[in-house]
Each structure stands twice: as structure tokens, then as C-alpha cells.
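Fold this sequence, please.
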Amino acid sequence: MMTLNFQIRREDALAFSRAYHDASPTFRRMQTKVRLTLPVIMVIFWMYSTWRTGFEPTITCIYLGIAALWFFIYPHRYRHNVEKYSEKMIDEGSYGKNFGSYELLLSDSGIHSTGPSGTSTFHWSSIDRVSLTETYLFIFLNGPIGYPIPIQDIGKEAARDAQAYVEKHISVNSRQ
């Protein structure tokens, strides 16, 4: 059994959203699809234009330049848009009621959470994955919800121990 006490603030919720999107196969597929669509269209237009009128350096620079710019700039732009969308979602409604002090009890039966909005209990089958970064221990529940636990609040050793504890219980549960 292990207990973690920490605070969840707005920046922690944004970091959790960022980590969720970074690991999401759907998010990555959509980003790749949109990143490649315009360059492919521009190359097709350039090939058609070259076929119809012959090679024109100006036309080539325009079509292929737009394609290259989009290909290299778009991932940053897409990430920026997703982060702005996440910020708007967090700032609207009553999301702020979830900010504050949390106590997370990790036990053999699952995770028991006490926080500003009440108490919750999740069986290990509800835990999707756990991730440890330099600044956070993320515990992802089913879907885009979970716990962004700041390392500064619990310490690196406790974060590593909690990650190992959660991974052990997730792997045991997945074999059953």
C-alpha cells in the first residue's frame, strides 16, 4: 500500500492533456494525415502544371515551397491549436473545481482518490497506463482522464516507487 499527497493545478491539467495527446494513436494519425495532405496536393498540382506548360522555376518554387513549409511548420501549428483548445476547455465550466489537494491511496484492490470534488475508487482494470517524466507521474485511467502528479510534490523516489507499483498491478490485472 502507498499514499501520495499532491496538488493539481491548471498547469498540471494542461501537462496531462499534452501527455495524453502525445501518446494517442488517433491524435498522431490525424496529425500525420493533415501534415501530408496539403504537400501531396501541391506536388500533384506542380506535376500537372509541369506536364501542361513545361518546367517553370517560379511555379516549382511556389508549389514545392508551400508543400515544404506546410510539412515542416504544420506539426508545431497543430500542437499549438490542440493546446489552445485544451486551455479553453479547462478554463470553461467547472473544471477548476478539480484543482486542489489530492490524496491517492494505491492498494492491492486499486486506487482510492480523495480530492476537492469528492472520493473515487478505481479498480486496476480501470487503469490504462502510467508514465513518468522529469516533472510528472501520470496515471491514465480509461479515456482522457487521470492524475497528473507533480514530482515536486511527492519526490522522485516516491514517483518511481508508485510507477513500479502501478505497473505491477496493471500487468497482473491484464493477465487475468
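The chain has a mean pLDDT of 90. Residues 97 and 109 are 27 Å apart (CA to CA).
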